[in-house]
Amino acid sequence: MSPCNSSRDDQTAIIHYKESRDMKKMDTDFHKLNKRVLKTYGKKFEVSPDALVSAPGRVNLIGEYTDFNRGFVLPMAIDRYLVMALGKREDEIIRVISEDFKEETSVDINALAKKEKHSWGDYISGSIWALKKNGCNVHGFNCVISGNIPVGAGLSSSAALEMAVLRAASWISGIPWNQTEMAKLGQLAENRWVGVNCGIMDQLTSSAGKKGHALLIDCETLSVQPCPVPEISVLVMDTATRRNLVASAYNERRQQCLTAAGKMGLSSLRGADMALLEKNRSCMDADTSNRAEHVIKENIRVLDAVQAMEKNDPRKLGKLIYKSHESLRDCFDVSSPALNDIVECSMEEPACFGARMTGAGFGGCAIALTEKGKEQEFIRNVSLCYEKKTGLEPAIYVCSPSDGVAVKTLKKSLMS
Ligand code: GLA
Question: Is residue 16 predicted with pLDDT exceeding 70?
Fold first, then answer.
């Protein structure tokens, strides 16, 4: 049992997610995704595009809610992407067609404005705003986007969109690419333009991902160390639940972490340890000290997880992952009944090394690590178990550690 026992959040705002963008109906074939944006680009703009950009989503193996505390995280970019076909324009307009939403938006580089109602277009204008704020000259371009990262599932579809826009705009405008600096701009767009106070993990993972590897990121120095993922399968388990108002709950957790650090005389929780927390616990409320306890122990778990991966010890890695989930549920209070149910179903499976919620939580996805070759049995059993518990149909699928954002120059061909 975890020592923490936070007051439960009201769970009434949970939405049961049954939209057409449900993962099961998504096209998981990367090549088909590329073909689709190329075709639409040709149809809409009557020329062939100049380049193709792809930016991956991510799962976080361990190290949750540690990034904005300057701690350690261990995410990996996954083989689910936001892809974009793009071509230069002569003016300073960016015209974007979303294949998935069947919508269009235009961004005037010289008159950037947020949409009245928050929309996907804000991630585009926000990324351009961040580039300009950094002193970059951005040229106009046309583009068509499509993706197979489910929205709002905790797999960082918005970070992938930001990194794709930054990669595209840099390529078109001749701006040198630096994976860390660009990830910082993606984060800046999200913090200051979109208004979500996220850390750097999602953008840096989408930017720096490496095939076959997870990334140990030190969020204080922003150093990225690729760590080979052992011979196990990583599964995404979409609970088919989403929750409104995640941003305000997220920002509240961030504030609580800052308060806890302040009470210990620190500027962030990176320098805290359990001894210091125990000394200061009495001057914090229970929720605040529980948040700090999670972060302190989670940072240690990340480093232990890296060691377990180095020693090719999936059982140890799995135990740490279960512990992380417990702590997010009981100390940090960002799990949900659906996430807990799917993790509990996973625990019953002998082939499962470990499972936990991933990303911001409150709904969305969990991950499981399983023995190779046992994935289908795991998917069948966990789906049945979860459906029995909740009446909901989950989407469970295998994902692979993948490379980060990439741009491919296309040879010009005449469109018929
Ligand atoms: C979201 C944020 C990240 C990180 C996680 C929680 O994904 O965007 O920066 O804080 O939540 O670990």
Answer: no
User: For 87, left (φ over 0), alpha (ψ -120 to 50), or beta?
Assistant: beta
Domains observed in the chain: 22-227 (3.30.230.10), 233-399 (3.30.70.890)
> Is residue 201 in contact with ligand 1, taking CB distance under 6 Å?
yes
Q: What's the pLDDT at 198?
A: 94
pLDDT of 117 = 77
- Global pTM reads 0.94
pLDDT over 90 at 116, yes or no: no
Mean pLDDT, range 340-344, rounded to an integer? 98
Separation of 65 CA from ligand 1 center, angstroms? Answer: 6
- Residue 344: phi and psi, rounded to 5, are -65, -40
- Residue nearest (by alpha carbon) to ligand 1 atom 8: 198
pLDDT bucket at 11, cuts 50 / 70 / 90: very low
pLDDT in tens, 374-402: 999 999 999 999 999 999 999 999 999 99
Residue 309 in tokens: 């991966």
pLDDT for res 115: 78
- The reply to whether ligand 1 has any atom less than 6 angstroms from the CB of 360 is yes
71 CB less than 6 Å from ligand 1? no
Question: Which atom of ligand 1 has the smallest separation from the CA of 66?
Answer: 12
Centre of ligand 1 to C-alpha 388, Å, is 30
Residues 240, 392 contacting (CB under 8 angstroms): yes
User: Is 330 labeled as catalytic in the residue annotation?
Assistant: no
